[in-house]
Amino acid sequence: MSYAEKLIAPQAAPRAVAKPMTAARLTGYILVAFWALLAAFLILTVIKGWDPDKFTRYGPRYLHGLWITLSIVALSVVFGAVLSLPLAMARMSGNRVLNGLAYCYIYFFRGTPLLAQLFLVYYGLGIFRPQMEAIGLWWFFRDAWYCGVFAMTINTAAYQAEILRGAIESVPHGQHEAAAALGIHKRIAFFKIVLPQAFIVALRPYGNEIILLIKGSAVVAIITVLDLMGETRYAFSRTFDYQTYLWAAIFYLAIVEALRHLWNWIERRLTRHLKR
Amino acid sequence: MGGLFSALGSFWSLLVHIFDPLCGPVGIFTWLAPSTILACGDTGWGDEIALGLQVTVSVAIVTLPIGLVIGFLVALGQQSEEKSLRLAAGIYTTIFRGLPELLTLFIIYYGMQILIQYLLDIAGYEGPPVEINAFVAGVIALSVVFSAYCSEVLLSAFRAIPKGQYEAGDALGLHRGRTLRLIVLPQLVRIALPGLTNLWMVLLKDTSYVSIISLSDILRQTNVAVRVTKEPFFFYGIACCLYLVLAILSSFLLVYIDRWAKRSEVRR
Questions:
Q1: 3-state secondary structure chain A
Q2: CB-based contact (8 Å) between A131 and chain B?
Q3: Which residues of A20-58 are buried (b: 16+ CB within 10 A; e: fewer)?
Q4: What is the pLDDT of residues A77-132, one digit of tens each?
Q5: CA B2 to CA B8: how far, in whole Å?
Q6: Residues of A in contact with B207 (CB under 8 A)
Q7: pLDDT tens digits for B103-144?
Q8: pLDDT, mean of residues A156-183
Q9: Chain-chain contact of B232 with A123 (C-beta, under 8 angstroms)
Q10: Mean pLDDT throughout A59-73?
Q11: How far is A85 from chain B (nearest CA, A)?
């Protein structure tokens, strides 16, 4: 039997293999360099065109616009969620009439642009002014901010109803049967067994819907609401300074990215019992 | 040469007129609303709205192939082994999926205008201020947004194709390009089609934004009609209905495309 009498002396690490410069690598470097140059150019224009007077005049307005955007989105998400529950129920019910009505509602609001819906609500409902004054709703539809919230609410309700329906139908039927076998009342089974499982499925689509709504909320600027986009347009029309749009872009990107990461965290947290 | 082009142009406009669904010889407005506010011609707004419909449809149809090609390239970049390429593609999708479509449109519309003016100033151009075409700016902005979303759809479709398919291509001695074209692409289309269908519907709705940079699409034309006739509910309702009809028609068409893409799939 033989054995090693001497250990192998430590060797130098093998030389790193030099990666060849392929076409993909070259393209990648060129594109990254392009992005870096663009970023440098934008930063340079911001520094060169920095005007403390503009900053003090429009800075607070931007922050106010940001607040308006966030409040419109938050309100319409909440009201849309409330409205979407009966819609999803109607869509899943066996009643032909209810089902058809909910289907038409959802199809209409998902098939037409938010901008057209906004015009329809803000300008279109104006011709019913006498009727609305009679029932005391005119103060609501006269105001652009209320109209923006209303149009976005009915728009997102359609999308959220579809998300909710898909999620509820994705819960296996055995869950209903198990609840029935345990003698749990149907309503309690729905709220305590089916809905929590449906929400986990619906979490990601809900996050996407909120992001889409934040991006879509920019159109309320067209009906003279001074949200982030509205303030940007205002500042641009006063100064003709291209930076105004860059600042808005930074704000929107920051909101969307923050929300995306927050949503990833929430999803990881809520689904940790499903990880194996 | 000029005569040929003008003949072709007039032939094309005749063709467009014949097949115009609103104001053509068999158009809806021609038959159902000859003497109302929607009449075609100088008395009504039918022909203006028909023109808007043409603009909306052509913006969407021109945007689609450009967006698909850019999206495909970006998806290839995102799944490449080269780190810098992934980084560049990631920056692209992050920016254009995060910005509101309206803001992207403004940034491209005004940005291009300022950039071209700047370059011309350097080149020593002296003349009237440049104004770029709203159609071009709209198509560029929409295809940038479309391609950012499209690349994500295609990327997930790429990931759904097993590696064995590429290896099978190698085993058959196919070149990389041929593997991609003959083996991967047909499966890719099949997997990505539902996602792309959604994106097409979103694109149809997003075309309404070009009305804001004063391109005369459906919404812009109805806006003009409303300003003159003071009938906002009626005209915006018509605009909504037109978008709805476009969505319904394209969903019918997409069913056929889906069936075509799945023609060689195993029947279960």
A1: CCCCCCCCCCCCCCCCCCCCCCHHHHHHHHHHHHHHHHHHHHHHHHHHCCCHHHHHHHHHHHHHHHHHHHHHHHHHHHHHHHHHHHHHHHHHCCCHHHHHHHHHHHHHHHHCCHHHHHHHHHCHHHHHHHHHHHCCCHHHHHCHHHHHHHHHHHHHHHHHHHHHHHHHHHCCHHHHHHHHHCCCCHHHHHHHHHHHHHHHHHHHHHHHHHHHHHHHHHHHHHHCCCCHHHHHHHHHHHHCCCHHHHHHHHHHHHHHHHHHHHHHHHHHHHCHHHCC
A2: no
A3: eeeeebebbeebbeeeeeeeeeeeeeeeeeeeeebeeeb
A4: 999 999 999 999 999 888 899 999 999 999 999 999 999 999 999 999 888 888 88
A5: 10
A6: 113
A7: 999 999 988 888 888 888 888 877 777 788 889 999 999 999
A8: 93
A9: yes
A10: 94
A11: 23
Report CA Rg, chain A. Answer: 28
* pLDDT mean over B54-77: 94
Q: Which residues of chain B does A222 touch, with a Cβ-Cβ cutoff of 8 Å?
A: 212
Q: Are B246 and B56 in contact (CB under 8 A)?
A: yes
Distance from CA of A98 to the nearest CA of B (A): 21
Nearest residue, CB atoms, B98 vs list A120, A218, A253? A253
| Contacting A residues, span 81-120, partner chain B, CB-CB under 8 Å | 107-108, 110-117, 119-120
